[in-house]
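Narrative of activities, Objective 1.

The group set out to show that a structural description can be obtained from nothing but a protein's sequence at a throughput compatible with the screening campaign. Below is one input-output pair from the validation batch, recorded exactly as produced.
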Amino acid sequence: MPRCLLAVLLLLVACSAAPPRPARQHAAIGSAPATVLYVIKRKWHVDIGFAVVDLAPPLAALRADFPDARYLLFGFGDRHYLLDEDRGFTGALSALWPGPGVMLVTGLTATLQAAFGVDNVIALPVTAAQARDAQDFVWRALSTGGDTVAALRAGPYQGSRYYATSQRYSALHTCNTWAAQTLAAAGLPAHSVGVLFSAQLWAQVQRLAQNPPAESTGTEQPGPNCTADACRPSR
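Output recorded for this entry:
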């Protein structure tokens, strides 16, 4: 198998999020800051998460789709690969070029640590303004032209749904690239250029958790294919 195709297959598998563990009610681990941005490693895929009580409009509108959830997680992926289930040679080859993306939103009733393991969850304390900036970035990715969003269909496991997204997926703009862009949108010193795999992003998040910036101002500027609102890789 050509190396480029093997790399594409790895990226597509990486952006197929692993399911959470069976929901069990656990007490929260430790005392969380008032406003937190959660980063969750799901094997080779990274999600961005928020406590439902911290959601602000317009993203708070998603509460209606997940009425019992305590947390909402957002993960980006390739639409054709995930929804059309074309996971053979043709599906992998098509992912070499930018194509429609899709957002998998997961609602959890248990704690993140119970669902994914303590080592796979990092809570980044942020200001209310930073949390709103991150949520606005997610909303702009979900909003494809209107003021409301609607699920495309049920997700691959209980408590998850697929949504359309204005973002486009490619071998250079993967689930982990998008997650890194969300952190940068929150004003955190994270970079997305060259971030394709979860390990590349997870190393950055671990450093952020160990050495939180005194004042996050954002270090990443939009690239040539980006607008101030969102990065959209061109065809």
